[in-house]
Amino acid sequence: MQRAALQILCGIDFDALLAASPQEKTGAARRLARLIERERMKGVRGHWSYDLNRHIALKQALDKLKISLTAPADAIRAVGS
Asked: CB of 66 within 8 A of CB of 29?
């Protein structure tokens, strides 16, 4: 579910991203961080389109992506299961 939401919201294929190069992962992490910041600002300002679930999903995706930058591929598969 989270992967589908990330694909729809951000246009990011998370499965392909986990297999991508470190440079691509770093770029995606920056993009996700910016999306999280924009979502946070919507919440702070009380904007009608703010969605806490979207905010949480973006943060979880960023956390998992950061883990994939530092951990070996076998450990990532174990975390994703």
From this structure: yes
- Name the phi and psi angles at 51, rounded to 5: -135, 115
Cβ(61)–Cβ(14) under 8 Å? yes
Average pLDDT over residues 45-61: 92
**Predicted confidence (pLDDT) per residue in 7-27, tens digit:** 777 778 888 888 888 899 999
Three-state secondary structure string covering 30-52:
HHHHHHHHHHHHHHHHCCCCCCH
Instruction: Report yes or no: 32 and 61 within 8 Å, Cβ to Cβ.
Output: yes
